[in-house]
């Protein structure tokens, strides 16, 4: 048996999960003096509610209901198009992966509530959930916590990550990389990232840095294109959304950014870094930043341009910079972007 304790709001130890015989279970007849205890004292979740909006998916009637780690692993391994896996409330400790694809007509669902918790067992290694070379998955409603990376998608297409709570993460919370295209990350709450290293604590990460192309994409640009990030609440230690060079044509829409813990590294100074091309960044709102609200950067020649910023609400709340710092040029910044606490632009004019 493994016991996991957390810290309550008053500083008292509280039981947040126990595994019995490889599954989520109840704690009975065990002395706390006889077990190994892991304690986390991270900040509570943001109080900001997740926005409502279009495009939500609903979980169909389940084809499998699971309540233990072994049952979950079996259901994932045997999933076929049309499968709907329902997680009972409980803590499922381990790393989990999807390796079978659904279809457009019959996607595969993994559904739960915030009380259905995938716990990676520690922030120094592993993925809480890995979408590994799959298409047409729907991850809906559950919690991912206590892993180095929260949800990782590699070579994943046409999948939806919706309504998750992703927190207590060593590095980034949700990462779409290695040619992952046409996916949606929406209506989730992301916080307490970067607990291993703040500089890697992004909320949502699209693509791969040029320095990692040799490792992950055979030296090619990581064309993780046309992904949508919509309606999420993100309080991250690094950028809320990091858009990497080589990615194109995505949309960042209607998100709420809390920059109150942003920092810990000289580059963690805006809610969004845009290094890709042809993105639309619209109707987002953010408050508090050490420097700027949004930034563009040219890491690879010809990238970080052709992007559109419109309808965003920016409260610098003491930040030293500007609402949108377009260091590249060739981007469209409309005059309906509204800034409190500083100017909209460092140079040039809105359109």
From TrEMBL:
InterPro entries: PbH1, Pectin_lyas_fold, Pectin_lyase_fold/virulence
Protein name: Right handed beta helix domain-containing protein
